[in-house]
Design goal:
Helicase, Ruva Protein, domain 3; disordered N terminus; 16 helices; 437 residues; alpha+beta; globular
Length: 437
């Protein structure tokens, strides 16, 4: 992307529950050829190659959901609907016959943390000493296989390994919840009925197909299975037989890693592009354009400069993200950062995966220190802030106590109109003049 006296070029290298998306088209990006000088930064002239885009996520329209007097009533109704759709009656009865209402799943699904975590808390956990040292050992054990997956699918080997580490501690912790009960509970509870029923139907297909055995039905409370925690419907669409034994088993290391590579590739991964590049910003930088997506050459013209020597194409779209505001690291995010989020639609998760991947590969992490003196708002304080912003004309699109994109953008606009640097970072200190707690 942007760098000191370097080319902006694209160099290929050799080296939730989850949303289901599929690639249906391709778009052109640029491949570098001869560099030409533009101002103080060199940018490459380009030729067109084809790369898969990130597929758009289609949000289904809400439909009325039936209510049930009991868990038993839901099971009877779902069984009838499943069998009328062609599912084997004995498989339906066997699956649901073992399912019980799990109150812990209801609690976990509806619960919210009292305080939002700061980004460095998540990052610290992702690159803990134990997770990194185990990751390096596991990567060494699987090096040949992981590099083969990188060559085949184009997804960085260390990123595949990092997702393995984040999702199951490299296969050590795959979940102890009874999957039929967890999914049936989510369906009966109603908040995610359509999602959970889809997963149950897919799980029955996997059982009949032989990917999953009746004796191996333990996973996460949210329905994740195996070493990289695929939900059933995603595995049905993205699972790969990595070890060539004729089955696609999410608890198999080879199958899980290959399927992760396949899933990221199908979701628009661009070969040779890092998920993020750490940058410095000029003193005169206009913070109102934080979180916007611009071509690499545009960021270069604004004085945004990578800390490490990096080569990117001038036309590569990059998004500027300040995870901890103006006093923390500044990152230019590539398309691959967004691709990681198909696993978990959280920027903190994508950052954690990216940092763990770098650590496993022996690369340095972030150079700029986190502003660890900042403190988060509680859930009730965020709700209060959202209400006050909306009342002041900065619509947060609801007051749910969660600091999401709409809330950050509304706060950023308020900052710009009220003498603060508009970096969108909400803390006890930055929100003090809006507080009523």
């Amino acid at each position: 992307m942007i760098l000191k006296k370097q080319y902006i070029a694209f160099l290929p290298t050799s080296l939730f529950a989850v949303l289901i998306v599929g690639c249906t088209s391709q778009q052109a990006i640029k491949k570098p050829s001869t560099p030409v000088r533009q101002g103080s930064v060199q940018i490459t002239q380009t030729q067109t190659i084809q790369v898969k885009p990130i597929p758009s996520i289609v949000t289904p329209k809400p439909v009325p959901q039936p209510s049930y007097n009991s868990f038993s009533d839901w099971k009877s109704d779902f069984s009838m609907r499943a069998m009328s759709s062609g599912y084997d009656a004995s498989a339906v009865q066997r699956l649901l016959g073992s399912a019980y209402l799990n109150q812990q799943v209801i609690s976990l699904d509806s619960g919210q943390p009292e305080f939002s975590k700061m980004p460095w808390d998540y990052a610290d956990s992702a690159v803990s000493d134990g997770r990194v040292s185990t990751g390096k050992r596991k990567f060494s054990e699987q090096r040949s296989y992981l590099l083969g997956l990188e060559s085949q699918y184009g997804v960085n080997a260390e990123v595949i390994a990092a997702i393995w580490g984040m999702e199951s501690s490299y296969g050590a912790v795959t979940g102890s919840s009874h999957l039929p009960s967890a999914l049936a509970t989510l369906a009966y509870d109603g908040r995610r009925q359509a999602f959970a029923e889809t997963q149950l139907l897919s799980l029955m297909t996997l059982l009949q197909r032989g990917d999953v055995s009746w004796s191996q039905l333990e996973g996460s409370w949210a329905g994740g299975m195996g070493q990289t925690q695929f939900i059933p419907d995603t595995w049905l669409k993205q699972g790969v037989d990595g070890d060539g034994n004729g089955h696609r088993n999410p608890w198999s290391t080879a199958d899980a890693l290959a399927s992760t590579a396949n899933y990221l590739s199908n979701s628009g991964w661009v070969r040779g592009l890092a998920p993020f590049y750490e940058v410095t910003l000029p003193a005169s930088f206009d913070y109102s354009i934080v979180d916007s997506k611009q071509p690499a050459a545009r960021w270069a013209s604004l004085g945004v400069d990578t800390i490490a020597d990096v080569f990117l194409d001038a036309n590569t779209p990059m998004e500027l993200w300040l995870p901890a505001g103006k006093d923390g690291p500044a990152l230019l995010l590539s398309q691959n950062f967004d691709v990681i989020k198909v696993y978990n639609n959280s920027s903190s998760y994508a950052l954690g995966v990216s940092l763990l991947g770098k650590a496993i590969a022996g690369q340095s992490g972030l150079q700029k220190s986190w502003p660890r003196y900042e403190r988060p708002l509680s859930t009730s304080q965020v709700t209060n802030l959202q209400q006050r912003l909306t009342n002041a004309g900065y619509d947060t699109k609801g007051a749910d106590g969660i600091v999401g994109t709409n809330t950050r953008k509304a706060f950023q606009r308020w900052q710009g109109d009220n003498g603060q640097t508009p970096d969108g970072f909400i803390t006890q200190r930055s929100a003090l003049s809006l507080a009523s707690w």
